[in-house]
Design a protein that fits this description.
Structural class: alpha+beta
Strand order of the largest sheet: 3-4-5-6-7-8-9-10
Strand content: over 45%
Distance between the termini: 45 Å
Largest sheet: 8 strands, antiparallel
Radius of gyration: 20 Å
Number of strands: 14
Length: about 200
């Protein structure tokens, strides 16, 4: 479904309102981070980090009052995606976006100014009519199991947008090979099948 500019911005402001984990008075709770986090390094101001579970939600926070802070959230331990927030040194929300295991960005990413207004946004799903939900269905239909998957990449492949699924079928278990499927970003059809020797990546 194509969202209007107004709807996208409304969603961005709602995300800001819903950002309540490790927050106080609409800002990242830096005082709490200093109290329960671990300080590291000898630089000033000190760098702090916290990792743990708050109300069954995995939370990782790090940063300092010079460069700002980052917060990553997973609502389930085995979530494929993490929800990333960045904050100004004073604790106001600076940016928001969703990532798949650090390899590709999903959905709309927002940048906010110090007063909380949306400066800009980018929809990383736009080139992909074949969505993440469609990919999950594709994996099910192809009987590709979660423990076989080594990576799922989404981005420009040789100048063309597409999905790339890298996995190790049972027949490849005792080899250095993986199977790579490239999917069309609009239809999900397999446009390329490749056997890749991953041992070469270690040379």
């Amino acid at each position: 479904m194509q969202l209007t500019d107004k709807e996208i911005k409304e969603r961005g402001y709602q995300i800001k309102k819903d950002d309540t984990i490790f927050m106080k008075d609409g800002k990242l709770d830096i005082t709490k981070l200093k109290e329960i986090g671990i300080s590291s390094g000898s630089s000033e101001p000190a760098y702090y980090q916290y990792e743990g579970y708050l109300n069954d939600t995995y939370v990782y926070i790090s940063g300092n009052t010079k460069n700002g802070f980052g917060k990553n959230i997973k609502f389930k331990k085995d979530d494929s995606f993490r929800y990333g927030f960045s904050y100004f040194p004073s604790g106001e929300l600076k940016g928001y976006g969703i990532e798949y295991s650090n390899f590709f960005k999903k959905g709309i990413w927002y940048d906010y100014d110090i007063k909380g207004a949306i400066e800009k946004y980018e929809n990383y799903d736009a080139p992909y009519e074949f969505s993440w939900e469609d990919v999950k269905q594709f994996l099910k239909e192809q009987d590709i199991k979660g423990n076989q998957i080594q990576n799922i990449f989404r981005g420009e492949l040789n100048g063309v947008h597409g999905w790339e699924i890298i996995y190790k079928p049972e027949e490849f278990l005792k080899t250095d090979n993986v199977k790579v499927l490239t999917l069309d970003p609009k239809t999900g059809k397999i446009v390329k099948t490749e056997i890749r020797d991953v041992s070469r990546q270690l040379d």
